[in-house]
Design goal:
- The protein is an alpha/beta fold.
- The strands form four sheets. It has an eight-stranded mixed sheet, with helices on both faces.
- The chain is elongated.
- The protein folds into two domains: about 150 residues, Leucine Aminopeptidase, subunit E, domain 1 (3-Layer(aba) Sandwich), CATH 3.40.220; about 325 residues, 3-Layer(aba) Sandwich (Aminopeptidase).
- The chain starts with a strand and ends in a 6-residue tail after the last helix.
- The protein is about 35% helix and about 20% strand.
- Helix 3 packs parallel to helix 5, helix 5 runs antiparallel to helix 10 and helix 10 crosses helix 16.
- The chain is built from 16 helices and 19 strands.
- Keywords: Aminopeptidase, Cytoplasm, Hydrolase, Manganese, Metal-binding, Protease.
């Protein structure tokens, strides 16, 4: 299991089989009052200079408090659920060598148990490394395989199941993104989607390269034709009985991105197996919806291709015909994600869902704009607002960006309906990409006067990977950013009001 098993206990200091205890405490400026009934901890904390600063972590000798080895982690001043989630994630990620860890939060925070359980499940994730000495190192640095969290006895099984499903979804994304492209072709990723949904009430369909060509998916075909590993399109449909809402998810699944004939520099190509993160997230969210039996129809579209240079590859200047008949001049073959997503958005629109969300590691420009922890969010105001509320509830960082009409003029091509990139300009690259995608979102009804389907675009090019140091519950590497927010958004039925 890539993340620890989570259990709950009504005991303040759970000791049912635990090997170590984690205690999360607030800022200790108030002394004994900050610890309430557990003020006997204070001398031990003062002895090591522990102040309860946010995410500060230390081992402490406290035999008067517990018979187990004890670690403490700081929540800072006036903690909320996000602080608890981060702190417990830090502790479980940092405290190694124990099979079962018990967690107690000494702070007055609503649903602190849930935030602690989420932090433990996320922070305890570990990828099975390809290193030859991985087993020996894992034995020395192993994270807990089981975490027992103090919680009220009133917590029901459904609440805990939601925590577990979210953690499993994030772990699935991290596992897939960490898999080298050598072992994850478009066909293999499509097969993984089938395998991981086979035992759930999810109907699946896969388009191979022949079906894609026959049905006019020119974006996916155009991006994938330079590779010896042909493209795929996967549709996953979870349709619970009596569903009143329908959410469609579209994910970018570039299993490796060289940039095509617009070849990336060597350093920029390292790690480009992560370019399928959006498709992995769509798979994980559809699975979670089915596991939790959410009363919402969820349709996932995984748009999968290798972007490789060869004698067959799409050239700058070529014109592709997309699934809705729109012609696109390819001015930059490294702006390929929007081409496969365009086909996916057209396909998703044909079902006329209540809302469409696409998710993609789309533009380097979003990293320049927002850094590596915030997800860029674009689209229709009400739908964007609904997603931002979901992100706030789950503690994920997201920021709304505009789609200005004046930039839309730059989409015009001399030879086709649109061009896929504004070559030679460094201005507003993320917004240009969002405006391009907007053109492929369909309408709720027939006719040009029918309103467009509400739509949200998530650019996770910065937030999908943590290339620096680990922080909170996030390790270095894939983050699974927006997965839990998307599950929350779907659980709310994708409501846009």
């Amino acid at each position: 299991m890539p993340h620890p098993e989570i259990a709950l206990s009504a005991a303040v200091f759970p000791d049912d089989g635990a090997d170590a205890l984690v205690i999360a405490v607030t800022d200790l400026a108030e002394g004994r009052d900050a610890l309430g009934d557990h003020a006997d901890l204070l001398p031990a904390l003062e002895a090591i200079g522990f102040t309860g600063a946010k995410n500060a972590f230390a081992r402490v000798y406290a035999p008067e408090t517990a018979s187990l080895p004890v670690a403490v982690v700081g929540l800072g001043k006036r903690p909320d659920a996000r602080a608890v989630r981060d702190a417990v994630g830090t502790a479980v990620r940092s405290l190694t060598g124990f099979d079962t860890v018990a967690v107690t939060v000494l702070a007055d925070v609503d649903d602190a148990w849930r935030a602690a359980a989420e932090g433990a499940a996320l922070g305890g994730y570990a990828f099975s490394s390809y290193k030859t000495d991985a087993q020996e190192k894992a034995a020395k640095r192993r994270r807990a395989s089981r975490v027992v969290v103090h919680a009220p006895s009133s917590v029901d099984d459904a609440e805990l199941a939601a925590v577990r499903a979210g953690a499993e979804a994030v772990a699935l994304v991290k596992d897939l993104v960490s898999t080298p492209a050598e072992w994850q072709s478009p066909a293999q990723l499509a097969e993984t989607a089938l395998e991981r949904t086979r035992d759930l009430p999810i109907e699946a369909r896969v388009w191979d390269e022949k079906a894609l060509e026959e049905e006019g998916f020119g974006g996916i075909v155009g991006v994938g034709k330079g590779s010896d590993r042909p493209p795929r399109l996967v549709r996953l449909d979870y349709v619970p009985e009596g569903a009143q809402r329908h959410v469609a998810l579209v994910g970018k699944g570039i299993t490796f991105d060289t940039g095509g004939l617009s070849l990336k520099p060597a350093a920029s190509m390292v790690g480009m197996q992560e370019d399928m993160t959006g498709a992995a997230e769509v798979l994980a969210v559809v699975r979670a919806a089915a596991q939790l039996a959410l009363p919402v129809r969820v349709t996932g579209w995984l748009c999968i291709a290798d972007n490789m240079p060869s004698g067959r590859a799409t050239r700058p200047g070529d014109v592709l015909v997309m699934a809705d008949g729109t012609t696109v001049e390819v001015t930059n073959t490294d702006a390929e994600g929007r081409l496969v997503l365009a086909d996916g958005l057209v396909a998703a629109s044909r079902d006329r869902p209540d809302v469409i969300v696409d998710v993609a590691t789309l533009t380097g420009a979003i990293v320049v704009a927002l850094g590596t922890r915030y997800t860029g969010v674009m689209g229709d105001d009400e739908a964007v607002g609904a997603f931002l509320r979901a992100a706030d509830r789950t503690g994920e960082l997201a920021w709304s960006l505009p789609l200005p009409e004046y930039i839309a003029e730059e989409l015009d091509s001399r030879v086709a309906d649109l061009r896929n990139a504004n070559v030679g300009s460094r201005a507003a690259g993320s917004l240009f990409a969002g405006l391009f995608l907007q053109r492929f979102v369909g309408r709720r009804g027939d006719g040009e006067d029918a309103p467009r389907i509400p739509w949200v675009h998530l650019d996770i090019a910065g937030s999908a990977m943590s290339s620096g140091s680990a922080y909170g519950y996030t390790d270095k590497g894939p983050t699974g950013a927006t997965v839990r927010a998307l599950i929350d958004f779907v659980a709310a039925g994708g409501e846009t009001r």
